[in-house]
């Protein structure tokens, strides 16, 4: 089942779309569907995954309690500074 997708595109991108579809002798719909699928395939097969991108982000040299204490102190100082008239 086809669905309608509406998007605002730059005039130069539309001109490229029209030129490419004329050259390839395919519809704009087919061109866009193929382009979307190819782009999505590249994203899926890239070496980058959410786990690879974030691996180790939670590893800190300090203990969690220390991180929480520093964050609370920073918040408290800023709150006091901005709370004074």
Fold and architecture overview:
- It is a single chain.
- Helices cover 67% and strands 0% of the residues.
- With 85 residues, it is an all-alpha fold.
- The chain is elongated, with a radius of gyration of 25 Å.
- It starts with 10 loop residues before the first helix and ends with a helix.
- The mean pLDDT is 87.
Overall tally of domains: 1
Q: Give the overall pLDDT as a whole number.
A: 87
Question: What's the total number of strands?
Answer: 0
The ordered string of helix (H) and strand (E) elements is: HHHH
If helices are DSSP runs of H or I spanning 4 or more residues, what is the number of helices?
A: 4
Give the topology:
Blueprint: H1 11-24, H2 28-45, H3 50-54, H4 64-83
Characteristic terms for this protein:
85 residues; mainly alpha; 4 helices; 0% strand
Summary, kept brief:
By secondary structure, the chain is mainly alpha-helical. Helices cover 67% and strands 0% of the residues. The model has no long low-confidence stretch (mean pLDDT 87).
